[in-house]
């Protein structure tokens, strides 16, 4: 039985983003919705995709260079609100 083999491992690590779930669309739409809500210049979809993989403060400094660090906290709150609130089926290809 294949499941007996898992007894050899104490920890299994999965690459979540891009392997189990594709979060690119969610990240891009959340960044743009947060910017729109805060009346900041709307980054393009391409610019929003290009910062994926960076830490959020660094990404926001790149997307909103004229706003300085004062944009980081409100954008982080708004981004989290939209990112966590947008419905997306979990594991759409697995079930």
Task: Tell me the name of the CATH class of the domain at 23-85.
Answer: Mainly Alpha
What is the end-to-end distance?
22 Å
Order of helices and strands: HHHH
Tell me the CATH topology of the domain at 23-85: DNA polymerase, domain 1
Biggest sheet record: none
- Poorly predicted runs are none
Helix content: 40-55%
- Number of DSSP strands? 0
The helix-and-strand class reads: mainly alpha
Q: Under the CATH scheme, which architecture of the domain at 23-85 would be assigned?
A: Orthogonal Bundle
Spatial extent as radius of gyration = 17 Å
Integer average pLDDT: 84
Q: Name the quaternary structure.
A: single chain
Approximately what portion of the residues adopt beta-strand conformation?
under 5%
Number of helices: 4
Overall body shape: elongated
């Amino acid at each position: 039985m294949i499941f007996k083999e898992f007894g050899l491992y104490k920890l299994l690590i999965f690459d979540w983003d891009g392997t189990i779930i594709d979060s690119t669309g969610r990240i891009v739409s959340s960044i743009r919705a947060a910017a729109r809500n805060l009346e900041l210049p709307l980054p393009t979809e391409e610019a929003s995709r290009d910062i994926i993989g960076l830490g959020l403060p660094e990404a926001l400094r790149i997307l909103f260079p004229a706003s300085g660090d004062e944009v980081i906290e409100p954008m982080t709150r708004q981004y989290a609100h939209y990112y966590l609130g947008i419905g997306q089926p979990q594991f759409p290809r697995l079930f």
